[in-house]
Design brief:
- With about 325 residues, the protein is an alpha/beta fold.
- The protein has a single domain, classed as Rossmann fold.
- The chain is built from 10 helices and 11 strands.
- The strands form 2 sheets. A 9-stranded mixed sheet has the order 3-4-5-7-6-8-9-10-11, sandwiched between helices.
- Helix 5 links the parallel strand 8 and strand 9.
- The chain is globular, with a radius of gyration of 19 Å.
């Protein structure tokens, strides 16, 4: 399965998503575009097809190691941007926490970047959403901040592909732990917004993290698992089916709670093939909201505005927008 979330080649092999690397090794005969509290077990259940379903388990009792280094943007701008970090699977995850002015508990949203990006990539969008009276948290995924060494074989690459995806999803779950611990956040109103590779991560979060009530997934596509299996070397086909099947976004998006997901895609996307975008739409559960835009892979401000409206309705965002704060429809 190709997830079509690849950064520009100039960013280097270590910045290319693991599954995009795998496509180079396993799908050479095929021309495919590329892109940019828990149980103790990694497997939640054994579906009828025999492919494991992961629960993205982690030690919920492990210290969060949350650190807030304070506000990094200047007053009197009303949205405070804090340099924060926390621990996940033995790593330090860096983020930006954006907090609107005022007291009381508010909804919160985790925002996750595209392939090769980091916590700064969606900080403008996080600020626009914070201007709607929502606490927002961007983060840098472990796959970007701490990429594994280049694999030496296809079998090793398969193993690393699964591990990298699990680590990214667990980092998001730990981010939810952070938000749930804050006095400014209502832990019953937490959402997610991911773009490109961050949207791919969101397909797993949708199935594995019940505390996330609503997910806006932008520009996410996937080829079917059968494409990988069909083009893998004969001796590797069973392992490809089992390992890549266990991190297949088309399977996990189908397990999302009905009505909890919004999919937004561009009709002119030059990075993700239209068929791949439609695969995710088709796999999503009943009640999934779908919006198409006359846009490329990087969606427009209007698309983000629609995503914020949808998240606002799902998370019951209250109160007026923050006076003096920029939104997707303003410049300041």
């Amino acid at each position: 399965m190709v997830f079509y979330n690849t950064p520009e080649p100039a960013r280097g092999w270590h910045r290319v998503p693991m599954l995009a690397r795998l496509s180079l090794l396993l799908l050479l005969p095929v021309v495919l575009a590329g892109c940019g509290g828990s149980s103790s077990s990694d497997e939640a259940e054994q579906p009828a097809d025999g492919i494991p379903r992961l629960d993205f388990a982690y030690d919920a009792d492990a210290p969060l190691g949350y650190s807030d280094r304070g506000r990094i943007n200047k007053k009197p701008y009303p949205i405070a941007v804090h340099d924060v970090s926390f621990r996940s699977q033995g790593r330090t995850i860096k983020g930006y926490l954006l907090v609107p002015p005022g007291e009381g508990k508010r909804p919160a949203v985790v925002l996750v970047h595209g392939a090769g990006g980091d916590r700064s990539e969606l900080v403008a969008q996080a600020a626009w959403l914070a201007a709607r009276n929502v606490v927002t948290l961007t983060l840098t995924e472990p796959s970007t901040s701490d990429p594994p060494a280049q694999p030496t074989s296809q079998r090793q690459l398969l193993t690393l592909t699964k591990k990298v995806q699990v680590d990214d999803v667990v980092a998001v779950r730990r981010a939810v732990d952070v938000l749930s611990s804050l006095d400014s956040v209502d832990p019953d109103r937490i959402g997610y917004l991911g773009w490109s590779a961050g949207a791919r991560t969101g397909t797993f979060v949708a199935a594995a993290e019940p505390r996330v009530k609503a997910l806006a997934l932008l520009s996410v596509g996937a080829a079917p698992l059968s494409a990988f299996v069909a083009n893998a070397p004969a001796g590797l086909k069973p392992q490809v089916k089992q390992v890549l099947g266990s991190v297949d976004p088309l399977r996990y998006i189908a397990w999302a709670k009905p009505g909890s997901v919004l999919l937004e895609d561009g009709k002119k996307d030059q990075v993700v093939p239209q068929a791949a975008l439609k695969n995710v739409v088709k796999a999503a559960p009943e009640g999934t909201a779908v919006k198409w835009y006359p846009a490329e892979h990087q969606l427009t401000k209007a698309a983000y505005g629609d995503a914020f409206d949808w998240l606002g309705a799902k998370l019951e965002v209250e109160g007026p927008r923050v006076k003096g704060a920029a939104t997707e429809t303003t410049t300041g």
